[in-house]
Specification:
The chain has about 230 residues and is of the alpha+beta class. The protein contains three helices and nine strands. GO terms for molecular function: carbohydrate binding.
Length: about 230
């Protein structure tokens, strides 16, 4: 009886040990699989992060060199979507900010620091050009000036206003007409014509929208003003 009891005990212990061994092996396999999955996911995530294209200020296509300010801007779309002006990753004017309007939209930026100075819009369809002229005359030397049209930016422009904008470096302002789309970046005291300007004429045969041409966009790097 004692021998039979001892044999049963040995069998029970053996079964227990066998069961424990099988369970531990299965658990170890699952752990290895889970760890392998985690490591594989981590490697894939790291690879995805390394291949993700970098984002530059204002969403421009490449980084600006040292001592330059990044900017990106767009004219308005017909009379529905307002223009947008961004400098150094700071959206200065947009429909979302609710600080744009029909006519010519203007943002002023400090040419040395890149800090925003002022934003205004002037209605060149139903408004008066006189306040616009006074504003242009008040701009200080060394100021970066960014302009974009919305709806119509030309009807009320006169020769004096056009000359003041031309003095900021614009070439196209003399030809800006009714409902043309135009964006421009220049500066007060600039000695040459600005390379930053886009202009599309209002032409019923080529207009993207009924009565208005397509949106014009522009991006670039503005040299910092040096003393």
């Amino acid at each position: 009886m004692r021998i039979a009891g001892a044999a049963k005990l040995v069998v029970v212990i053996a079964i227990f040990l066998l069961t424990f061994y099988v369970i531990s092996q299965v658990f170890e396999i699952k752990m290895d699989a889970n760890l392998g999955h985690i490591f594989a996911r981590s490697a894939l995530d790291a690879a995805a992060r390394s291949t993700k294209p970098p984002r530059y200020k204002c969403g421009i296509s490449k980084a600006c060199p040292e001592k330059h300010f990044a900017f990106k801007m767009a004219s308005g779309a017909a009379n529905v979507v307002g223009p947008k002006i961004c400098v150094e990753d700071n959206v200065l004017m947009s429909g979302v900010k609710n600080n744009v309007g029909r006519g010519i939209n203007v943002a002023l930026v400090n040419g040395k620091t890149g800090e925003p100075l002022d934003t205004k819009f002037f209605d060149m369809w139903g408004g008066d050009v006189a306040p616009f002229i006074e504003f242009l005359k008040s701009i200080q030397d060394g100021t970066i000036v960014l302009m974009g049209t919305y709806d119509d930016g030309a009807t009320k422009l006169n020769e004096e206003a056009r000359k003041l904008i031309a003095d900021l470096g614009s070439t196209s302002i003399t030809n800006l007409g009714f409902r043309d789309n135009w964006v421009f970046c220049g500066g007060k005291g600039i000695k040459t014509k600005s390379p930053f300007e886009q202009h599309i004429k209002n032409n019923k045969d080529t207009n993207k929208y009924e009565g208005w041409p397509e949106v014009v966009e522009m991006e670039g790097c503005i040299p910092q003003k040096q003393d």
